[in-house]
Write a structure and sequence with these properties.
8 strands, globular, eight-stranded parallel beta sheet, alpha/beta, TIM Barrel
Length: about 375
Amino acid sequence: MATNGFHPLEALMRERIVLLDGAMGTMIQRYKLSEADYRGERFGDWKGKDLQGSLELLNLTHPQVIEEIHSDYFAAGADIIETNTFSGTTIGLHDFLFQGEPTGGRKDQEFFQRVVDDIGLRGLVHEINLKASRIARHAADRASNETGRQRFVGGSMGPLPVAGSISPDVNDPAFRAVSFDQLCQTYFDQAKALLEGGVDLLIVETIFDTLNGKAALFAINDALEKTGRSVPLMVSGTVIDKSGRNLSGQTVEAFLISIAHGQPLVLGLNCSLGPDEMEPYIEEVSRIAPFYVGAYPNAGLPDPLSPTGFPETPESFASKVAAWAANGWLNLLGGCCGTTPEHIRAIANAVRDCKPRDLNCGASAAADVDPKQNGV
């Protein structure tokens, strides 16, 4: 494929709809792994906390499971697979892997400073992200060699269990559990390891608190400088309900303005909502964003009676998101919670003849946006 001076991923997005993979957690659930499986031999004597549910730990204890899932998504037609590192930060994994406890009765900045400074935890997080990157890299290179199609590895940097701009205590609205510096430190450790592991791009995703997302962008810049690498960036926010706002109260437009300084290659929305509920917000992003646009919704709203916990089948999901592609709204499309390789395969078939969004269509609208009117 001729790139004409563009990064290979950008060149591909100008040519056709690029396919992202689906859910990692949904696929891991199919393996019905036990506590002993999560622990493996290495963590067999881990004291104090159960490890079942720490998906990122499987990069170390069951790497073959993770690589098999990556390969299944590539076989389904995905161009990009994400590393199994969604919660792979010191703060994201502290409930499983940090042995300390709060000293003041609640998790506060003193507690999280101990978390982000803990040498053992930082070393383990570095190892997890490095191994996850190499697992994904191996799967991508094998798929590329077998098919003659370049495949990409996205370093997944998900949200944290704490927010920089919101108090977790309704009785103390001024309280902040973490500081901006602590958020930056935890994201820096992750980004640096992902870059060292050979990812092709970094994906800051499921941003429910814009301040957390801005900390991730700050940390990524630092990590790129420290590693000497240069990779594209994808930023994906999440709208929490039909109000069209994220948890920190920003509209889609305000969120775009707040992170635009990071100059992502792709801006998108993912998680929280299914395709029916997400549609007006994807349309809005497409209208105003001066970046390539991506979307990967959940397979509907949660439904405990459905096999995956979400109701949209591959066929119903694909028909709905393919309409967005047919409308010229998208450059990148995939799935979030409840989606599987079957969903990605159905999407691939449905969007095969759809043209990608013209990058210039959002430029004029973005130029007219006034940050002062959007709570930035």
